[in-house]
Every structure is written in C-alpha cells, then in structure tokens.
Amino acid sequence: MRSGQEPNRNGGLMTPSPRPRIQSQFQSTVSVQKNRRFNILILVFRFAAFCFSLASAMFMFTNSRGGSGSPQWYNFDAFRFVAIAAAIVALYSLFEIGASVWEISRGATVFPEVVQVWFDFSHDQVFAYMLLSADSAGTALARTLRERDTCTANNAFCVQSDISVALGFAGFMFLGFSSLLSGFRVICFILNGSRFHM
Amino acid sequence: MRSGQEPNRNGGLMTPSPRPRIQSQFQSTVSVQKNRRFNILILVFRFAAFCFSLASAMFMFTNSRGGSGSPQWYNFDAFRFVAIAAAIVALYSLFEIGASVWEISRGATVFPEVVQVWFDFSHDQVFAYMLLSADSAGTALARTLRERDTCTANNAFCVQSDISVALGFAGFMFLGFSSLLSGFRVICFILNGSRFHM
Asked: Where in this protein does the record put region Disordered (chains A, B) (predicted)?
C-alpha cells in the first residue's frame, strides 16, 4: 500500500508499477476460487445436517401407533425434545443452505459479512449443544423403555425411536463439522478482515 | 518498527528515540496487568467448574443404599455416564487450575504457548459436550425413574441423583464460560502471536 505513495528517487511520485497489480489480481482469483471450494464444502455439510435432522424429526413426529393403549411419542418428554430439536436444526440448516447458495452464486453474504460469520458460528454452536443434549436424553429414555414392557408389546415404536435418535446423532456430527468450518471463517475474518482465507 | 531503520533527513541513520520505547513498555505493563486479571477470571471459572463437577461425581458415586433390593447408581447406564463424565471434568479442571496458578505466578504457560491455548480450548469444548450429554441422559433417566415405583420406595436415591445431575449442569455452565475465555485466548494468539490480548 505504501509503495504507491512513496516519493520516487527522481523526485516525482511513482506511478504504480503493473506487476504488483497483476500479482494481486492473480492472488485474488486464487482466493476467490479457494473460498468457493470452501463454501461448497460447508454447503455439503449443511445439506447432510439438514437431511439427517429432517429425517430424525420426521421419524419421531410419525412415531405414533393407532390404538388407545399404544405409546405415543408426545407422551415422553425426551422424545418431544428430540423431535423439536431436530425440527429446529432442520429449519436452521435449510436457512443456512439458502445463505450458502446465495453466497456461492452472488459472491456476497446475505447479512453484512461481520454479522454473517458470527451468526453462523454462534448458532452452529448453540444448536449443536441443543441437538446433542436432546439425543442423549432420547438415548437414555430409549434404553429404559427397553427394560420395561413397552418395547415387548410395541417393538416398532422402540425401533422407530432408536432410528430417530441415531439420525439425530448423525445430524449433530455434520452440524459439528459445519461449526468447525464456520469457526475457521470467524478466525479468517478476524485475521484478514474478510471471510476469504488467504 | 520501520521508523527505527529509516534514513534520517540529515543523511545518517536515526538513533531510536526514547519515547516509543517508554510507550511500548507502558503498554506492555498494562497488557501484563490485563492478562493477569483475565487469568484470574479463568481461574475462578475453572475453580467453580471443579467444585461443581467434583460434587456431582461424589453425589453420584456415593448414591448406593445398603440392602440388596435397593437401587445402585452403577446399575443405570446414564448414571454411570454422569459419574464418570463429572469425575473426568473434575480431574481436567484440577489440572487446569494448576496450569492457571503456574501461569499467574510465573508469567509463562506450562506447555509452549501455541500448544497451551489450543489444548485448553479443544479440551474445554470436548469435555463440555461430554458433560452436557451425560447430564441430559441423566435427566431423562431420573424423570423416567420418577414414573416408576423406584422413587416411591427409595426417594433418597432419586433425590441424590437429581442433585448430582443438577450439580453437573452447573459444572457444564462454568466449563462453557471457561471455553468462551479460552476461545478468546486462541483468537488473541492467532491475531497477535501471543496470548496477551492487547
């Protein structure tokens, strides 16, 4: 930056030489391409988190058998927590997929850059904690249900709950990966003043 | 930095003027003091996390009534998880308290600085997830035990489990605060090349 304003040895102001500009344009192109690849990786993780958490929520929401004596998912606190946490994460992931696609196609973030990187990271963290908490509670409940006669009478209910909780854990894993990447973006932003990581 | 090496207008090399050095010494003193206050804050959070997780582990480990028919904590998976996770966090917090005291008294980290800041942050994150997961599972189990006749026959067992889980959540909260602060130290380290935040 300073070299363009420094006085020349011959007395006048130097005109900026073309070489640094070409180099910086080249670097900028490489940076944009790397950033694009990085964004596509985030998009893949977001999509995986969306699929797994949506599947988890669907499995739990449809987990009610007909008949008055059979167990319903909404009668168990932990299963309600699993269903609602998975639904919230699915909605959030859908929003983040939209934001990612927007960023890849237009090259700009939806919110101002500083808001966007901190928004992504903080929400990833909070929702990852929430989803893990819900699925841990769901696992503990599912295990105690196996010891009771609920599962011998209604095995399909227990199997469907187990699948829902397992899908939730898979969603948590991909949300965790997204959180690592968005944390990396926060650090890049703090370091360089932009989300580009070069 | 550059000003010390720049040629003087009179021709010779300037000797470094005393004012910047005094200013930087002053800034360094302020920085050391701020860092000390920051470390004391971390130490307080670590100590709180240690106390709560140790109490949680002790409450769970001693949660067995005499008599052959009464419930034991080690017969429940989720309660074993609560006890072991709390014990691990208590040990880790104890180590971190030692590291903090060392740093405050000697002004240097136990490991090399780059290892220390990343070690603290990563372990805070992993153990916070683990403790939350354990206590969520413990909560779900404690709630289902209330519905069964376990708690009417052995109310003390259930109350002690509830207290242990609640103490575990308090420990998680303080571990989360420590994690925020150690994350801040990581960012400072990346920004400045030192854990000092100025």
From this structure: 1-20
Distance CA A34, CA A184 (A): 14
**Does A138 contact B at CB distance below 8 Å?**
yes
Under an 8 A CB cutoff, do B136 and A140 touch? yes
CA distance A154 to A75: 15
Mention every residue, 6+ apart, whose C-beta is less than 8 A from residue A73: A60, A61, A63, A64, A79, A80, A83, A161
Judged by CB atoms closer than 8 Å, whether chains meet at B139 and A137 is answered as yes
Q: Are A151 and B152 in contact (CB under 8 A)?
A: no
ipTM tops the 0.85 cut: no
From the list B165, B175, B134, B171, the residue with the least C-alpha distance to B51 is B171
Query: How many whole angstroms separate alpha carbon B26 and alpha carbon A109?
Result: 41
Q: Which residue of B has its CA nearest to A131?
A: B133
pLDDT in tens, A106-148: 888 888 989 999 999 999 999 999 999 999 999 999 988 888 7
Query: Nearest CA of chain A to the CA of B81: how many Å?
Result: 10
Residue A145 to residues A67, A68, B158: CA-CA distances in angstroms? 19, 18, 18
3-state secondary structure B37-87: HHHHHHHHHHHHHHHHHHHHHHHHHCCECCCCCCCEHHHCHHHHHHHHHHH
- Residue ranges covered by each domain of chain B: 34-61+73-192
Collect all residues of chain B within an 8 Å Cβ-Cβ radius of residue A187.
Answer: 187, 190
Interface test with B, best of A80, A136, A161 (most B CBs within 10 A): A136
Q: Which residues pair with A64 in a beta bridge?
A: A72
For residue B148, the chain A residues in CB contact (below 8 A) are 148
Chain A contact present for B140, CB below 8 A: yes
What number of helices (H) and strands (E) belong to chain A? 5, 0
Give the mean pLDDT of chain A: 84
- For residues A107 and A160, the answer to whether their CB atoms sit within 8 Å is no
pTM for this model (two decimals): 0.80
